[in-house]
Amino acid sequence: MVIVFWFFIAAITLVALLPALLGNRNDCGLPRIVQIIFLILIPALGLGFYWVETNSQTLVRYTLLEEESRLAKKERSKIKEIHQLIAHLKMHLSLYPLDSKGWYALGKLYSVEDKHKKAAEAFEKAYQQQPDDEEYSFSYAKSVFFENNGYLTPSTETLLQKVVEKDPENYSALNLLATNYYLQRQYRFAIMYWERLLHFFSFDHKEKQR
Fold first, then answer.
1. Overall domain count for the chain
2. pLDDT tens, 75-109?
3. Is 137 within 8 Å of 160 (Cβ atoms)?
4. What is the pTM of this model?
5. Cα dihedral 130/136/140/146 (nearest 10)
6. What residue numbers bound the domain in which 30 lies?
7. Are both 52 and 8 inside the same structural domain?
8. Rounded distance, CA 205 to CA 210, Å?
């Protein structure tokens, strides 16, 4: 827009001053030296702004490409780090297969990579070592849920029901059960679990959390 404006001014200047400079007349009332300065300066300014605008756009594009490259490099570094951690954990677990925390950590890493089947297998190992741990139970059920495209298996459904029986305040387990029933079109059960979630948003519950 700035470029168009200055080229427009330059064109008007040329139209106004060129006849006077080529002839012997001075119709515009300006000294000849001033006319020459305007004739040179205005187009030069237009070209200058064009150069600045073009290079500014190039600089912006270069900066954006540099930022994209930096983020991509950072993401590749993060993925490489995750792969290294997975490799170390797998080696550790081959030596200590009863380490429930190790299996849980491995499941977390697989979850980050959206490898839900492998995550479910790792979380199941952790759950088998510590069946009373609510976090292990929930993580296992959630991975199975994603692996099955939004459906719990009968065993993981039962597992989550046991979790909410033990801990009625387990928001994540209640919500996953409600979502599972909704996707299965068992709306009565979905509503039942979602209603149990309503008190989390009540004023009294928020006051207790303070």
1. 2
2. 667 778 889 999 999 999 999 999 999 999 999 99
3. yes
4. 0.63
5. 180
6. 2-72
7. yes
8. 9
